[in-house]
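[audit] Reproducing an earlier prediction to check determinism. Same input, same settings, fresh worker. If the tokens differ from the archived copy the diff job will pick it up downstream; this log only records the rerun itself.
[audit] input (291 residues):
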Amino acid sequence: MKAEVLVQALRYIERFAGTRAMIRFGGAAVVRAELRERFASDLRLLHAVGLRPVLVHGGGPEITKMLDPLGEKVTFVGGLRVTEETHVRIDDIVLSGQISGEFIGALARAGARAVGLSGKDGRLISARKLLSPSGADLGYVGEVTKVEPSLVELLLEQGYLPLISPLGLGEDGHTYSISADAVAAEVSVACRAQKLIFLTDAPGILSTDGVLISELSAEELEARVRGGALQEAMLPQAQAALRALTGGVESVHIIDGHIPHNVVAELFTSSGAGTMIRAGAPRNEDEVARG
């Protein structure tokens, strides 16, 4: 059994050598120390066998945890946290300081070299104020207007793992807090990544009767979004997945970050561990699955 798994993994390792993979993580992989350490080991393995990971992390719950003792009121509009000017400073401290620092430490213990980047560094991410569909003022919540990937490219060339916090810099000089899902999609397109992987607190995309869907095409996912067939919590990842796929990313993977080594199982086994969405039309029966 173990030999079969290794042989199967070897085929995928050879196939993915040199592949750029954007990995967006948050939730349990950020909060739980043991999962953070195991995920760091997985990233070291992916890098060692030839993948070139680029990381984007979230941290909404950790930001809220920091704001509460300060007496800062947290409100949401359409699922987006309203970000006051004072909140932006907290976002920067938590995202670019606490979370980035903890994860760089975990990667170092795993034997990997990582560099933490705010989206503001080197104007990696330019942003503008995000307008709410309802007209409500979201404060300093932003959307990506441009990605300048040269700094990420330089780090990849030198063998580092770039770790990006989802902040952007506006033309007005203000810092904007941006959805980590949207940042992952835009950076994956700008860096010409072949894969975009979301580590979430869900097993993947579920059917209406609660069964995990192993594989979807971009067309099928778009139809589910239009038809209201997705769980509300999955919509940000679905919309980011469609943006990445239309921008040239070959496949998007949504997997459960609670389960140790899930990212390895998703990439290096034929059955996978979550949901894979591939660009283009539904797969023909004679095409190779997953990958």
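[audit] rerun output stored. Observation attached for the diff report: The mean pLDDT is 85.
[audit] end
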